[in-house]
Amino acid sequence: MSLIERWRERLPVTARTPIITLGEGNTPLVRADRVAKAANLPPGSVFLKIEGMNPTGSFKDRGMTLAISKAVEARARGVLCASTGNTSASAAAYAARAGLRCIVFLPRGKVAAGKLAQAVMHGAEIIEVAGNFDQALVLANEAAKTRGFALVNSSNPFRIEGQKTAAFEILEQLGRAPDNHFIPVGNAGNITAYWKGYQEGGAKPRMFGWQAAGAAPLVSGRPVANPTTLATAIRIGRPVSWNGAIAARDESGGAIGKVTDAEILAACRFLGRAEGIFCEPASAASVAGLIKLGKNGRAPRGVTVCVLTGNGLKDPGIAARFAPKIRRVKAGGRIKL
Asked: From CA 85, how far away is CA 101, in angstroms rounded?
């Protein structure tokens, strides 16, 4: 069953809305006792929502199925977006499924190889921008207004509506509301969507957003002109959903903090080796934030859900930073283990 069919009564769709789906949603919620221990929390208190199990490997598919479906309903000429990678991969895949033209604006040299490969294979028309994501988004907005294309970035309200369904799933999977929700924050659409979903589900967990230290405008309270971080998915200096993220933080009694690239990498490696989950660096920001608080004795009590937004194969180059020592032997030789 598609995400739209599953949650039709809670989404802005009608009988006229076509359903463009790749089978998104219904991603695993996995208990993570080793993460809990690293954060000085008791067993059974931490769970990971693995959004990298969506069709194109990231949470973006939740909003894209609805955004593309509504674009087809509105008879758009095509779709376009600016992206750090995951949005372009998702938009390209769903546009291909719908038979729509897809144009993606990418900051030159700043998109991980796995994500670029997806956009290419799904037939997206790629425009490289000599600048950062925020500058690419300006161009995408201008193009959408003048060319009759649907913009499918998180400023599109249908994206937020689709993404809120992850909160509904967590409530079902846990059988209760979590006390705390930890999530990476880049353009801030996802934290906005989760908070909307929780509220509609009658829940109010504390929302903890985590930005990379070199791209933390919500922490400093002002835009970052040249954001820097190896976590490319959250390398954004002027979040479109700024107000939504602040509202989620304040209304829930949560917080928005920052983690260094070193902390992100350490969490990424820890998840792979301790929990068997390979996520892209940006995803690990949520776990890095929880562990950081735990080391300082400030991790919140109760049940915590950490969202892992994208699959590790999105950014395969990151594994090179953890290359093991490789032993070589001759065929037929003896191996000492």
From this structure: 18
Length of the chain: 337
29 and 174 Cβ atoms separated by less than 8 Å: yes
| Element spanning 68, H or E | helix 60-73
The answer to whether 149 and 174 have CB atoms below 8 angstroms apart is no
> What single letter denotes the amino acid at residue 170?
I
pLDDT at 329: 84
Q: Do 254 and 290 touch, CB atoms closer than 8 A?
A: no
Vertex 257: Cα angle to 210 and 272 (nearest 5): 40
DSSP 244-267: HHHHHHHHHT-EEEEE-HHHHHHH
Positions of the chain with pLDDT under 70 = none
Separation of alpha carbons 13 and 66, rounded Å:
9
Looking only at the bridges linking them, the beta strands covering 46-50 and 29-31 are antiparallel
> What token pair was written down for 44?
């059974």
Six-digit token string for 108:
């030159």
Per the rule left: phi > 0, alpha: psi between -120 and 50, beta: everything else, 308 is: beta
Q: Return contacts of 268-271, CB within 8 angstroms, 24+ apart.
A: 268/312, 268/318, 269/322, 270/34, 270/35, 270/38, 271/35, 271/48, 271/308
Alpha carbons 84 and 19: distance in angstroms, whole number: 26
DSSP per-residue string spanning 93-133? HHHHHHT-EEEEEEETT-S-HHHHHHHHHTT-EEEEESS-H
> What is the structure's pLDDT at 324?
80
Across 155-216, where does the E strand assignment appear? 180-184, 206-212
Instruction: State how far the Cα of 271 lies from the Cα of 302, in Å rounded to an integer.
Output: 21
